[in-house]
């Protein structure tokens, strides 16, 4: 179990490092296309830094508002608060904010920037369909995201994906407005820069590359949170049973959006399960491993 946790942490750190390298490459490509070289790269990094700082401070409030989450009343949701408090005491975590989402689909997510500034939100459907042991497993999964700083990693990953997509779109639009020519300082011949062609092609595909990388980070963090949750509760069958119920439930989480899909314990957005030749390609952009794979992994612990 501990080897799996360490392996997932190393791979996630490596993936974030790759994100930074990709962002620098995008900045360089933008600099080549708009004709400002190093200045373009620096401007791209500064822009991304501002976005990351904004996300760091505001991501939790935005996620809770988008999901229409409200604070869980301690009297009305006493069982929920008791389970969260018990798990926090056992794991040495400060108690996060506890929120309720009025949604019939069983689901939950954690958000925030660190264990001292975190929140857990669960749907009414989860409370209705899970027994105490299963609910404890789901809450332990979300608290594991908090303890392992997954909430921060996922926020940074999503921000970097957004930065790369926005920068790529801006550069391509600027070229379009300029008639497809690349601005080259001190040179009136704007059309013969092979680096610009490479940069243009790279900018077209970089958002897809970034999206696939972000999905890979999210999948690894979900696996790590499953294993960490079993370590926290010391009872894998509880989370296994919860994941089996989530697998068998077809209710769509209407409170989820594409912007928050990576945060939930189960892939919340409905879609076609492709079993054909393109299934591997589709899975590259899935933010969660298949529930069956997660269940089988926990059974092997």
Derived from helix and strand composition plus strand pairing, the structural class reads alpha+beta
Total discrete domains: 2
Largest sheet: 4 strands, mixed
Low-confidence stretches: 185-191
User: What is the level 1 CATH name of the largest domain?
Assistant: Alpha Beta
Order of strands, widest sheet: 1-2-4-3
Description of the molecule:
This protein has about 300 residues and is an alpha+beta fold. It folds into two domains: about 1-65 and about 150-215, no CATH class; about 65-150 and about 220-270 and about 275-300, Zincin-like (2-Layer Sandwich). The protein is about 65% helix and about 5% strand. The chain is built from ten helices and four strands; from the N terminus they run H-H-E-H-E-E-E-H-H-H-H-H-H-H. The protein has helices spanning about 1-35, 35-65, 80-90, 125-130, 130-145, 150-175, 195-235, 235-250, 280-285, 290-300; strands at about 70, 95-100, 110-115, 115-125. A four-stranded mixed β-sheet has the order 1-2-4-3, with helices on both faces. Helix 6 (about 150-175) runs antiparallel to helix 7 (about 195-235). It is elongated and about 60 Å long. The N and C termini lie close together (about 5 Å). The model is unreliable at about 185-190 (pLDDT under 50).
């Amino acid at each position: 179990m501990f080897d799996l946790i360490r392996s997932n942490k190393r791979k996630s750190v490596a993936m974030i490092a790759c994100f930074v390298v990709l962002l620098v490459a995008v900045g360089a490509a933008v600099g080549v296309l708009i004709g400002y070289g190093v200045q373009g790269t620096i401007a791209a990094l500064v822009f991304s830094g501002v976005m990351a700082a904004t996300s760091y401070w505001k991501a939790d409030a935005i996620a809770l508002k988008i999901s229409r989450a409200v604070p869980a009343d301690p009297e009305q949701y006493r069982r929920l608060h008791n389970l969260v408090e018990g798990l926090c005491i056992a794991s040495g975590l400060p108690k996060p904010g506890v929120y309720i989402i009025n949604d019939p689909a069983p689901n939950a997510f954690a958000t925030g920037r660190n264990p001292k500034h975190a929140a857990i939100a669960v749907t009414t459907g989860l409370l209705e369909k899970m027994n105490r042991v299963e609910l404890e497993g789901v809450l332990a999964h979300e608290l594991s995201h908090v303890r392992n700083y997954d909430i921060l990693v996922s926020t940074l990953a999503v921000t970097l994906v957004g930065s790369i997509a926005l920068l790529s779109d801006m550069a391509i639009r600027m070229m379009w407005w300029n008639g497809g020519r690349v601005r080259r300082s001190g040179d009136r011949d704007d059309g013969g820069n092979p680096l610009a062609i490479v940069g243009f092609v790279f900018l077209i595909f970089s958002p897809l590359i970034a999206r696939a990388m972000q999905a890979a980070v999210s999948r690894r963090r979900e696996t790590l949170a499953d294993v960490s949750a079993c370590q926290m509760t010391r009872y894998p069958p509880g989370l296994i049973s919860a994941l089996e119920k989530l697998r068998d439930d077809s209710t769509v989480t209407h409170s989820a959006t594409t912007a928050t899909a990576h945060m939930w314990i189960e892939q919340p957005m409905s879609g076609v399960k492709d079993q054909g030749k393109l299934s591997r390609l589709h899975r590259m952009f899935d933010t969660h491993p298949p529930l069956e794979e997660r269940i089988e992994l926990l059974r092997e612990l």
